[in-house]
Design brief:
Elements (H helix, E strand, L loop, with lengths): L17 H16 L4 E2 L5 E3 H7 L5 H6 L2 E3 L5 E4 L4 H10 L10 E10 L11 E10 L4 H17 L5 E7 L6 H13 L5 H9 L2 H4 L4 H6 L12 H16 L5 E2 L11 E9 L7 E7 L3 H4 L7 E7 H11 L11 E5 L2 H16 L4 E3 L6 H11 L3 E5 L1 H5 L2 E6 L5 E5 L3 H9 L1
Helix pairs in contact: 1-5, 1-12, 5-10
Length: 420
């Protein structure tokens, strides 16, 4: 046993389970790659003020959950708790918005960090795939992202997820709602910290998960009743476009995302098989975020889907992903001459695009064949001195047990024919 263990609230991804995570990442990013989104990768840590300004100082993420630290040089940094602010910062720094062809469409995948109470589906280190469309105010863009996320989940075989949809208004109509909501909240029996939060950003109180708070919010004013005509028209167009695409959603007038930068369209993907941590992803429009972090006005929209949560959702539905075996051919050599020859053939097979492995460590036939079984390979290539004297190797089908002699020079072609 090692003296060290993974830190509390984190996990290691190891084979074969890690193959599920890779398959989920590929499935989520697939529709994005086919829709003009280019890959972006940002540092694991950023200036702490990027998140304080962008995510919001009143959010739990910034006030309680962010891993912030000061470097030896005096820089104040934070491990990234979410992806949008970092991706927008990277796009602005590279002047992608000045190259024409807006929106700038980007996707990303990576690890994020929040200091919170660990539980199933909620970790201090977690993985997400995200997408951002920067620089265009268009309901079709909001609809596109919702449709692509729905497509990704369905391609994995998920069926029991729901899409919740709402509008948070804009700088014209939200202040009127904000005042009405604050007036309502001041009349409730709330603790001091929640009342303080209500004065900074009252919408955050609607996102409070405590039962005693939610009980008092039953009669809270709804933002949809305060939307201006422009926001109403925008939201109706988003709804119409995703409906026309056959994507089923639920209107949720109380849906509030946990980040301060969202405006207008907001949505969440939930899976009822995950218990209290039912959200598997979400996103929305954030038209003012660029200006918050010092950039020009760039209306944008995006989402992030949790890889960890998606894997849990698949398990809750009993969905088994069709993940091919990591190895198609496993080579077993008896004797040094055969060992050298088969090692060369394994290299040749790999260069021909065949997933191949080799029995390392000088094991005997019995031990090496056990390795071949454990590898999940469909075929085993076995050779000893007698085989080499005849210029052949034995090609064994690991499922049927059938075995045939194949000329050494024709091995790659014979393997390809068997695997076709």
């Amino acid at each position: 046993m090692s003296t060290f263990k993974a830190p509390k609230g984190t996990y290691d991804l190891i084979p074969p389970y890690s193959a599920k995570y890779l398959a989920v990442r590929d499935a989520i990013s697939g529709p994005l790659r086919r829709s003009g989104y280019g890959y972006v990768e940002t540092p694991g840590f950023e200036d702490v003020n990027l998140f304080a300004r962008g995510v919001g100082e009143s959010t739990d993420i910034v006030s309680k959950e962010m891993y912030a630290f000061e470097t030896k040089g005096g820089d104040k940094l934070a491990l990234r708790p979410e992806g949008t602010a970092s991706v927008l910062r990277a796009a602005l720094e590279a002047n992608l918005h000045k190259q024409g062809n807006l929106p700038v469409k980007l996707w990303y995948s990576g690890s994020y960090y929040r200091y919170e109470r660990p539980q199933k589906g909620r970790y201090r280190h977690f993985s997400q795939v995200g997408a951002e469309a920067i620089g265009a105010e268009d309901p079709a863009l909001d609809a596109e992202l919702i449709i692509l996320a729905d497509e990704a989940y369905r391609s994995l075989g998920l069926r029991n997820f729901r899409i919740l949809l709402n509008s948070l208004g804009d700088k014209e109509c939200r202040p009127v709602y904000r005042e009405a909501l604050q007036t309502f909240l001041r009349g409730l029996d709330l603790d001091e910290e929640t009342l303080r939060r209500a004065e900074i950003n009252p919408l955050r109180v609607l996102d409070d998960k405590r039962a005693d708070v939610q009980k008092q919010l039953v009669d809270a004013p709804l933002l949809r009743d305060y939307l201006c005509d422009a926001c109403k028209a925008y939201h109706e167009e988003v709804r119409a476009l995703i409906t026309a695409a056959g994507v089923v959603f639920e209107d949720d007038p109380k849906l509030v995302r946990g980040l301060d930068y969202y405006t207008r369209t907001t949505f969440e993907f939930v899976h009822d098989g995950l218990g209290s941590q039912s959200a598997v992803g979400g996103g929305g429009r954030y038209d003012g975020l660029s200006e918050m972090i010092g950039g020009p006005a760039l209306p944008s929209v995006g989402w992030a889907l949790g890889v960890d949560r998606t894997v849990l959702a698949l398990e809750a539905e009993g969905v088994e992903l069709d993940i091919p075996a990591a190895t198609s051919v496993f080579a077993v050599a008896i004797g040094e001459e055969a060992r050298r020859l088969l090692f060369g053939k394994v290299t040749e097979l790999r260069r021909a695009g065949v997933a191949a492995d080799f029995s390392f460590g000088g094991k005997g036939l019995k031990g090496a064949m056990k390795d071949a079984n454990r590898s999940g390979a469909r075929l085993a290539v076995v050779a000893g001195e007698r085989d080499l004297a005849e210029g052949v190797v034995q090609l064994k089908d690991m499922e049927s047990g059938e075995q045939q002699a194949v000329a050494v020079d024709g091995l790659v072609e014979a393997v390809r024919a068997k695997l076709a």
